[in-house]
Amino acid sequence: MFNRLIFATLVMGLAFVGAGCITVNGGATQTADGGVWKSTDRGDTWQQKVAMPTTTGQKASIGGVSVAAIAQDPSDANAIYLGTAENGLYYSYDGGGSWFQPAQLNRGRVPAVAVDPKDKCRVYAAAENKLLKTEDCSRTWAVTYLDTRTERQTVAVLVDHFNPSIIWIANDAGEVLQSKDGGASWASLHAFKSTVVKLVMSPTDSRRVYVATKGAGVWRTDDGGENFTDLAEKYSSITGAKDLYDLVVSVSAPDTLILAAKAGLLRTTDAGEKWEQLNLLTPAGGAVIYSVAVDPKDANVIYYGTVTAFYKTLNGGVNWAPKKLPTSRVATQLLADRANPGVIYMGVTKLKQ
């Protein structure tokens, strides 16, 4: 197995360049405020974390990429994986201090990444109509799922934290599939009538999985995918609540979920049986909420991102503190560090006109 200490030693021998420049796939270098931003004080201040080491002296960074996914290794808080909208996959083993790219995933959209919780060198990445897998810390990748319909897109992936041989994926047709042998074979579980936005697993019971869809709301299975319950019926009276952008589950309070929708933020504290609409500083529908995160140690600490601002509450939504984004781009991804309270990663995207 690839030793990350050896990797870190190799990195020390490379030169780092300024955060605001980028060279992607041999393209021209340009100044940009994209990529990843990191805060160590719950979003009060931010630093752009986009440097790429180089042995040639050529300036290179990920400052121009648009972020489609951020994932953290459950067993190593410093290992961060970044899926992009057009430029493939990047990974960092030092909390975003330096970024590297596998040769086999250096282009295209990567909307989802998942790390095996019991083997840090086994990682899954959604790309085009495929699911790719590495078992040697990103040195080599192989296709472990292929949809023969080339127009389809794999958009979500989960690894069972109790039994990592069980893998979940979903595509843009609303189909959810499962493998029980690490990706060697697959079975179809359910076909929803809307594009899947995200798959979320309970941190305490891996049989409980939530499926967030673009227009059909949130669904839940409590038996590993044999049956699904439509949770959207519980909040169907709220206009715009089914039009989802993000969904997150609390680590410290496993039955608490926050969903970001056209209606704003909705919260459940009983695994989806009852929902409440949180009071925000902006009216429902007034600003699109693209991303949401919950502090792993405290379910009352909630963050969300919009086109121009980052918001946080320390008391469950009673009061909110807004901050102007440190970038001209949109806060499309938020990740609250599981091991380090107050540390947040923000992935930003340049929206197409």
Short summary of the structure?
It contains 1 helix and 29 strands. It has one helix at residues 4-12, and strands spanning 21-22, 30-31, 36-39, 47-48, 67-73, 76-84, 89-92, 112-115, 123-127, 130-134, 142-146, 154-159, 167-171, 175-179, 187-191, 196-201, 209-213, 218-221, 229-230, 244-249, 257-261, 264-268, 276-277, 291-294, 302-305, 309-313, 321-324, 330-336, 344-349.
Written overview of the protein:
With 353 residues, this protein is an all-beta fold. It has a single domain, classed as YVTN repeat-like/Quinoprotein amine dehydrogenase (Methylamine Dehydrogenase, Chain H, 7 Propeller), CATH 2.130.10.10. 3% of the residues lie in helices and 38% in strands. A hairpin with a 7-residue loop joins β28 and β29. The longest helix is centred in the N-terminal third of the chain and has 9 residues. The protein starts with a helix and ends with a strand. About 7% of the residues have low confidence.
Helix content range: under 10%
In the CATH scheme, the class would be Mainly Beta
Overall mean pLDDT? 91
Low-confidence stretches: 8-30
Strand percentage: 35-45%
Q: Which key terms come to mind for this protein?
A:
353 residues; mainly beta; Methylamine Dehydrogenase, Chain H; four-stranded antiparallel beta sheet; 1 helix; 29 strands; 38% strand; globular
